[in-house]
Amino acid sequence: MVIKYIACGLLCLFFASVIAPVVLMLCKKLHASQSILHYVDKHASKEGTPTMGGFIFLLPLVFSLFFLFDKETFLAFFTVAVTIAYGLLGFLDDFLKVHFHHNEGLKPYQKIIGQVGIALIVAIFVYLSGQTSLWFFGIEFDIGWGVLPLVIFVLVATVNSVNLTDGLDGLAGGTTFVYVVIFGIILAVFGGISNPQSSNLAMLCFGLAGGLLGFLMFNCFPAKIFMGDTGSLALGGFIGVVACLCGLELLIPLMGVVFVLSALSVIIQVLHYKRTKKRVFLMAPLHHHFEQKGVNENRIVIVYIVITVAVSLAVLIGVLATL
């Protein structure tokens, strides 16, 4: 079983490494390049970098469906479908940015409608499938119909948090890589609450991890290609839907603490500025604040990844201690 997980990850890594140059070439040929916001002065040199690189790890994720363990594969296909749905929403946003040569794609309300619409489908499915219990380090409790608003909140919050974290070369990809590897291990040994298909979901985690590693070879500083909203919305959707299908929603803010920090820093900045016309941070999300303080981009990315590794391993140890 372990060998199959590793094989899936390695083959998806190889697949991503092969298609990455092709995706990069197509993006350049189609002039699918990123427009940098004028007030992010430190990123002026990144103007024109190809975007929509999320396809580099999304295609290997689909490929990983061939490695599924259980005969019951519906949850795995459902997970990939939800991930792709968020990816397509992000692709539409990226396409509008590229087509009109600015950094404004879909309107905020259009993004929210799309995100909530997909999340609503997931919430109804989770409720009808009877997965209304939550697990938190040995404590299990049923929230009944309350799972409907919870799933919607979890998905929308996760999708936007990962999207906000995607601001430095290798940041969102690196932290998500760590997250999905350790979450995959948790699913492989624990499986969540009454989920007979957890091994399939674990396989998807390792497949996505392989794809992300292949993407990072082209996205680490200096990035040759960005994942764009195509990738960041898809990653947030994957993290959210896998957790919701296993009753492990409460692990997301722990293992994904850097995503939470990104989102909270933006919320605090906006609310404080509206009230006082003053800023708490030099720039939000938080990684841009550190950048404005003079911290090297690579140092920020490494610290974020190290934090994710440390917290995720602590969660893994906590889960194993309950078995």
Provide keyphrases for this structure.
323 residues; mainly alpha; two-stranded antiparallel sheet; 2 strands; globular
How would you explain this protein's 3D organization?
- There is one protein chain.
- This protein has 323 residues and is an all-alpha fold.
- The protein has one domain.
- It contains twelve helices and two strands; from the N terminus they run H-H-H-H-E-E-H-H-H-H-H-H-H-H.
- It has helices spanning 2-29, 55-63, 74-100, 108-128, 147-165, 171-189, 198-219, 228-246, 252-255, 257-276, 286-292, 297-321, and strands at residues 133-136, 139-142.
- The chain has a two-stranded antiparallel sheet with strand order 1-2.
- Strand 1 (133-136) and strand 2 (139-142) form a beta hairpin.
- Helix 3 (74-100) runs antiparallel to helix 4 (108-128), helix 5 packs antiparallel against helix 8 and helix 6 (171-189) runs antiparallel to helix 7.
- The longest helix is centred in the first third of the chain and has 28 residues, at 2-29.
- The chain is globular and about 50 Å long.
- The mean pLDDT is 92.
Shape: globular
The proportion of strand residues reads: under 5%
Number of domains: 1
Overall mean confidence score, pLDDT: 92
- Uncertain stretches of 5 or more adjacent residues: none
Radius of gyration: 19 Å
